[in-house]
# Entry
Amino acid sequence: MKVIDLFAGAGGFSLGFHLAGYTIVGAIELDDWAAGTFKYNNPEPTVLVGDITSFSDDNILAIFNKKPDVILGGPPCQGFSVCTKNAGDPHDPRNSMLKEMIRFSKLLSPEIIILENVPNLLKAKTRSNASVIEIIIKEFNYLGYHVYYKILEAISFGIPQIRKRLFIIGTKKMLNHPFPEATHSQFRNLFYRKQTPTLWDAISDLPLIDACEGSEEMEYVEEPQNEYQALLRHNSSKIYNHKAMMHSKRTVERFSVMKWGQSVSDLPEHLMPYKRNGNGEIAKSAYDQSNRRLFPNEPCHTIPASFYANFVHPFRNRNFTAREGARLQSFPDWYKFLGKPTVVSQKLLKKEGRVEEQHLCQYNQIGNAVPPLLSKAIADNLKEQI
# Structure
């Protein structure tokens, strides 16, 4: 079955469908670096780079004349805000990027539509107090789709990360079980499921590097130590994107006193971060979620777009590398991320007019992605019924 991935990012959502045997035929992505990653790892599909709203109906019909069976999309819906003024209620999904999913579905009439978003979407209301999820259901019902939705947890599908995401599935054929059953549990032998790998299960075979070490391309130094590592190393001869952050000596010292579970807020005062533009003055408060040293024998916390500053390696005095984040997201090792590893604050880039640098770095691309193994579980389940 043919798949088009809208708001594709680096391609985690469609990668799961590829691994399940679907054919990816197209994608649309706004960011140049994320689109570059998608194209590098998916050389065959047609990848359109640009604002999805800039492609007219005629453009879409001409480019994707062989209509897809599946349309995927994780549209950005932060507050359902829109850029244009006087566009009506910004909390109404019909005035947000969600309307593009509706437009493409109407134009291309796939058998399956799948939207991915944050669980809080289920609580969202318009200014007139209408339920956003009910509006979405009605819109797709009008196009002839049966609609199902559910919050899925990554740890329930063998992914070593506590991550909950909402999936909305529309199908032309009514389904008896639209969502996959859990295959794994964080706790041993619960309901006879497999045990979800831990953080250390996911990354322990990668070269143990310190701050300022590593490279964008490295050799393996040891054999895989468990089933999860063997799965992600399949068809890969090298390790990509395993370059540690260029921490200062003071940052390394700061991390060296942290125990598992501690963050910047637990540091002695003399090791607290300096105030920004404070001429060396120590900050009196610190964000509790910043730079937390994670427990090795538990699943990782949710990998966000800025995870290079969120987590400290369980044993080394540094933040995670991009590849470690990719492992925790369940990307295979052969999947290479392009663009710079990190960029400075998007707000600062915008303020200074550095438009050419306003892109999604490797960490952003990884943190924004749908975990491929979670996507694969959805794809496998649907394949049996369509």
Remarks:
- Residues 278 and 290 are 19 Å apart (CA to CA).
- Confidence is low (pLDDT under 50) at residues 79-88.
- Residues 199-368 form a domain with the DNA Methylase; Chain A, domain 2 fold (CATH 3.90.120.10).
- The chain has two domains: 2-187+372-383, 199-368.
